[in-house]
Amino acid sequence: MPSTLRSLIALVSVLIAVTALPGCGSSGGDNETPSSPDAGGGIGVGIGTGLGDAGTPRPQIVPLAPANNRAIFNFDYGWKFIRGDQPGADQAAYDDSTWADVSLPHTTNDTDTWVDWVGFANETSLRLKYIGLMWYRKHFTLDAAYADRKVFLEFQGIRNVGTFYVNGTKIGIHEDQITACGLDITAAVKFGADNVVAVQVDSGMLRPETASGVTFEWSGQGYYPLYGGLTRDANLIVTDKIHQTLPLYSNLATSGVYVYATGIDTVSRSATITVEAEVQNEQATEQTVTLSADMIDFDGNTVFSQASAPQTIAAGQKVTIKVSGPLTGAHLWAPDFPYLYDVRTSLNAGGNLVDVVDTNFGIRKLSFSAKSGLKVNGRPIYLKGFSPRTVMDWAATGIPQSWMTEYDYLLMKQANAMFVRPMHVSPARHMVESADRLGMVMVVPAGNAEGDMCTDRPECLVRWAQRLAVMRDSTIYFRNNPSVFFYEGSNSGLTEQHMADILAVRRLWDPNGGRLSGCRTVDPVNVPSEEYGSSMDVPAASNVIPAWDSEFSRVESPRRVWDRYTPIWDPHTGQYVTGGYLAVVSAFHAEASAAEGPTTAGNGIKEYPLCDYRQMSAESLSLCNVWTYWQRYQKSAFVLPLAARLSDGIIVGGGKIFFTDSDSDGRMKDTEVARVSGAVDGVRIPKQSYHAMRVAMSPVPAVHVMGHWNYAAGTTKTVYVAANTLSVKLVVYDATGAVAKEYAGARDVQMGEPQQYFFAFENVAYVPGSVRAVGLNGGVEVASHEIVTTGAPAAIKLTPQTGPKGFFADGADVAWFDVEVVDAAGRRVPTDMAEMTFTHSGEAQWLGGYNSWKRQSTGKDTLFTEAGINRVFVRSTRTAGTFTVTASRDGVTPATATVTSQPWPVDASGLVQTWSQRYAFPFGPEPAAVADEN
């Protein structure tokens, strides 16, 4: 990415409000030194668990690179697309004028997903997806001044198989469905004239690998939801014939630049910085070169400079040149202080500067002991977060724009989370780069469905080789990113030999980055090659390696179901009913729950009846998610007494399975069009469980009253309050503001054990007005939350939302409209659930929204509100202009809102050097230095 663009992106301010979210019985925020795990028995405060004192956004300043022979172009814009095979489409002269205009990232499955019931294996959902061949074509012109240079294409993701042509010449094929693809197109490209790149994509899920005839095991919809096409960003890269290579091993067999820090002293903040650059000479004669490395801090100051001795490289040869030196006064990367440097490597040949590469890099030190747990830069940390499907798909839009994934990250940060474990397959480039900047800890998987594999058939050896190849490519691609802490070799256990193979990949390609290799099991005795372990829905601990739960609390509930007292729409009868989720599930689930009771092996938590996946409401889902969170956190170094840590081991964190609802392997047969395990729904509207987890994971006092306060007259119910304080009181006020009654509650009890973060107030009589919960520590009020009774629906409210810099006419960008039903005072009516109609016109593509309980609701002009709110989406075209939406329904005042797209800079060449927008994250004061001692 050009340095000018990187500086521009860094100037983007955060549009999501950043506040110090209250929390965990401590007076401090994220930037305090955590309480010592040695104390035992208490609730400690881990770093990076929330936004804390976020500070003011400031840009990362990267000076312009001096003139050299490298140029990078955004290759996302200006493609033509069509479904189905098109004979002759590989040829430059083919007429594609009738094809659709699209830009990358793109999927042909944006409109045929989230439309049918998801079963355990998604048989019904897959029926309606387009699966098969499709074509993409793009015209572009390269300046004649580049005629003596190399030209490469980087496609960061193809689902599933891409076959590439340039001007009618077949260039290559990429089949693993996961990793980035590099292509050398130098021999086929024309300079100063029109060029055509054509890509045939086959989204067939069971298409075998060409060379081996063996399919890829991770293709299943439940593991890797199908979004076929050129689903990630693309770049065109021009270099000198003697250049630093790209970190794209498949096809190119190159590994790029590797930067790492060793000997990190967390007190003096010093380290040794080493840069290894693979240099390739594609000149006809040998070349003598020197490599220099400069480290530029966040404010644009050069703080480190080293240069190599001259080195001669024969024609056609690749060599790795290494420079190393000390750095003092280092700023250390951490989730609450995501400090990045720019490492600029410059290649000189024959006295000329021929190639410059910029690499974002962060310095951090990881360590572990059973006494102190996992530490970053000497400070104990507990990994709090989520395990989403890697695609992180959105209802109505399919795959997200890069800034939409960052929107997810910022939602996570506001919930006091900072850990993301993409499931089954390796993440996209932008997911990891965003994690670097926003302070998220990342896991990078290889490719896997579930578990290890057989060893007695030839195809087993092929599949293992496929997995190792993905792990190799992903390691090379992400080994400079400070957010990456873990490489995951399998979504289940591995044999010792296979785990040793995964470890060997890390030791070969990332021996000094301070990252750990492991898999989804915790067994360092039988699998000693594990450098970390992760369990699944089980709080497994270790005193030998870092252990975390990879995917806990897999139960499900849609957002619209508040509790058992609130009327909801029953799609089977077309009536409003009460009784919670069981009142509206399919006959299959109602009969199964009646026959089997509240515990079902593999789908519920036997020791906690409310975690039956068939009986969830927003209320019970919240109770279950927080219950399972505490079962793990209580085994951390912040809570467990020292003796127990040393003998029994500890847990260092975990990810709740699914941050958002997803078009994946749901268990809601014949009832939902999504896997509804998320803390937010498929359009990112928070569920009650989001707020409950925010409270549980908060480092400062926090309270949240669950549910709403719009019940029928005469309702008496248990009111639940999520709180991390020592006690809570509940006060009900009437419509005049007078106290109707004050209630004393106690911690919710399940199976004889108190809930750490939930208080139950039984037999609370509903009185129109408000209800307020007050959190107390030592009798002192430290946090509170109040919800009020709203009036009848009076009007619709439309609120547009764009990316951090606006809405761009690039043919791919997305904007949305929040659609709320409010009372006469402008307050959202939380029990509203009725259908509204949209009319729309202007310069954008209407995508609509979705209802999780309604088949084929996406893309339509009608939509139900759920709990008083929903969202509808539009995608930009290539023409800038306004787009207007009006929402209406009988009996309420309609609303109209507009978004305006901005022009996207592109010229006749078809190439641009502007990249997609990003958020900037404000981080506060630098944490005090802490000695890394155990």
Please explain how this structure is put together:
This protein has 934 residues and is mainly β. The chain has five domains: 11-56 and 380-557 and 614-696, Alpha-Beta Barrel (TIM Barrel), CATH 3.20.20.80; 71-244, Sandwich (Jelly Rolls); 257-361, Immunoglobulin-like; 711-788, Sandwich (Immunoglobulin-like), CATH 2.60.40; 795-903, Immunoglobulins (Immunoglobulin-like, Sandwich), CATH 2.60.40. Helix content is 12%, strand content 32%. The chain has ten helices and 49 strands. Strands 23-24-25-26-27-28-29-32 form an eight-stranded parallel β-barrel, surrounded by four helices. Strand 48 (882-888) and strand 49 (895-903) form a beta hairpin. Helix 3 runs parallel beside helix 4 (429-438), helix 5 runs parallel beside helix 6 (496-509) and helix 8 packs parallel to helix 10 (688-696). The chain is globular, with a radius of gyration of 28 Å. The two termini are 40 Å apart.
